[in-house]
Amino acid sequence: MKEIKYTGLTEEEMIAAMIEVATVNNYVADEDDEDDEDATFEDVFTPDCSACLLEGYFTRTTESNKYIAEQVSQRGSEGDGAEMFLTFKITNKETGKIGYLEYSGRYSSWDSSYYDERYMVEPEEVTVIQYNRVK
User: Fold this and answer.
1) Residues 78-83: contacts with CB within 8 Å, 24+ apart?
2) H helices of 1-135, where?
3) What pLDDT digit, counting tens, does each position of 5-30 carry?
4) Alpha-carbon distance 120 to 1, whole Å?
5) What phi and psi values does residue 95 have, to the nearest 5 degrees?
6) How far apart are the first and last CA of the chain?
């Protein structure tokens, strides 16, 4: 099997792109939420960020002159303490390079959910076998 060398955006480029797109589109924290009021764009995209901050960004395709950022996956958080994941696709419109950035954390039904890890990912199509009851 031939090894594929990743040639997409770096993690630093993706963070810079998300900050740029958020800035251009005037995304700001909700003033009514005391957890958000002192947040900056840089805070939102760090690994140790609040779920309420991060999930409010890029729920639809959003762009600046140079970048396109979009949320492509939100999964997990099925119950208190469950893992949750939020994945973004970032495209550099000038170079055509694409990168994927994922945040993972824990859902809390009684307190603030949070993301505490950020890492680069890449999409992979997989086949899932499902077993259904015979009638």
Assistant:
1) 78/107, 79/107, 79/109, 80/107, 80/108, 80/109, 80/110, 81/106, 81/107, 81/108, 82/106, 82/107, 83/107
2) 11-24, 41-44, 51-54
3) 667 899 989 988 988 888 887 765 44
4) 23
5) -100, -20
6) 42
